[in-house]
Amino acid sequence: MVRLIAFLVGLGFVVVAGWSLGNGVYAFATQPREESVEHQFHLQPEHASYSFDGPFGTYDRQQLQRGFQVYKEVCAACHGLSYVAFRNLEEIGYGEAEVKAIANQWQIEVPDIDPKTGEASTRKATPADHFPSPYPNEVAARAANNNALPPDLSLITKARHGGASYVHSLLLGYRDPATYRNKEGEPVPTEVRPGQGLHFNPYFANLNIAMPPPIQSDGQVTYADGTAATRDQMAKDVSAFLTWTAEPRLENRHRAGLATLIFLLFATVLSYLAYQNVWHSAKRKVRASGPLDPVNLAKSHEASREAGIQQ
Ligand code: HEC
Predict the structure, then answer these.
(1) What is the CA(304)–ligand 1 centre distance, in A?
(2) Which of 19, 122, 160, 180 sits CB 3.0–4.6 Å from 175 for a disulfide?
(3) CATH node for 41-80+133-248
(4) Where do the segments described as Disordered lie (predicted)?
């Protein structure tokens, strides 16, 4: 009896689950999906071309240094780079002394403790330190940014679809919601217009970002190498720099890939030659002793003829 009740209860669950699955599948198949307003106005990042694109791409050290300059002078006020150490800058072409000077003059000091009293304090950065966050903790970061948290930028190009192109588009993507029109020519509806402290940017997933436009005018940074600092150039350079912070070993990876391809090509040729070498004599031997070998065929014909067998 208990078994029967358990069976019926189980059956009841299966019927209900099956019913709701069937309903869901039917609705999915027959009803068109409703597009959200965000979706209608959201833009995919525009692809910008970089020296590190493709399987053989390499970093342009000059560009990375320019990008670092933009990070240092603009973004570092709000964003940390906690996975990158000052000494890593040697990989993008800075000398040891330059790195020391950069760390020493960094605008934000790194947290430390007083060696005598053990009290919390700060000190100047050294090349071994990682780039410090501009805020002591998340609460302070949110309090300074309209309750939004500026993310650490070390891995941001890996964390967003589109990578460097996304950051580039985002930095230049601020628009005036009053005059902006989407591809269908529609104006921005009031429900997705930015609230207080937010900024309209169609490249950002929910269209309203708490980051004020960081790259505002040409010449905001004066490049050490004399390159003209247009808004597009600055956005591109800092995006390239953030690709390097997220993937400093990209060039090794590309080189290893190329070496592997060459090796595989070489191994293919080698194995083909080995195959020919090994089977070449084996095939000859088979033919020489096999029944279809012309010599053997002639012999068998001869024997048949001698025995008076018609072929
Ligand atoms: C005034 C402070 C401030 C400055 C300066 C600033 N940002 Fe931001 N940034 C923010 C805040 C706040 C957010 C979080 C926005 C949100 O979640 O709405 C953010 C978010 C971002 C994001 C993530 C967007 C996403 O998809 O989640 C990126 C990328 C970014 N900033 C890049 C930069 C770069 C590059 C610079 C320098 C050129 C820079 N920011 C300068 C405050 C700042």
Answers:
(1) 94
(2) 180
(3) 1.10.760.10
(4) 291-311
